[in-house]
Each structure stands twice: as C-alpha cells, then as structure tokens.
Amino acid sequence: MKMKEIKELSNEELSIRKRNLRQESFHLRLQRGSGQLERPSRFREIRREVARIETTLSQRDATQTQRTAVKETK
Description:
Largest sheet: none
Number of helices: 3
CATH topology: Helix Hairpins
Oligomer: single chain
C-alpha cells in the first residue's frame, strides 16, 4: 500500500491491517525455516508497510494530543 492509501484508512482499519501483516510475517518466517519460502522480498515489503502504518498511527495520535492540549489552554 502507498502512503496515500494508508492515510485514507481509519485507525481501526490500520490496526487490523497491521495485525494481518504481522501474522503474514510470522508465517513467512515459518516457511523460511522449512525451506518453502518463494518470495524472500516479501519480508521487506511487509516490514516497510508496517512501518508506514505505525508512522501514520503515531502522527494521528500526536495530532490528537496536540489538539487536546490546545483546547485545555483555552
């Protein structure tokens, strides 16, 4: 997924997507251990997509925290 697509998803959808990617990563590690892994490059794709999702979630959290702080000062 591209960053643009990720930013369009809700927090709940991002959390679900992140969990699914982590499960896929786990299954790929098992396949690698048994010698059945067909696309080793998929590890990199998953790792980067998880990082994009985590970045988006943390940015949203920081923005929300900042908005809350501004409201409390007024």
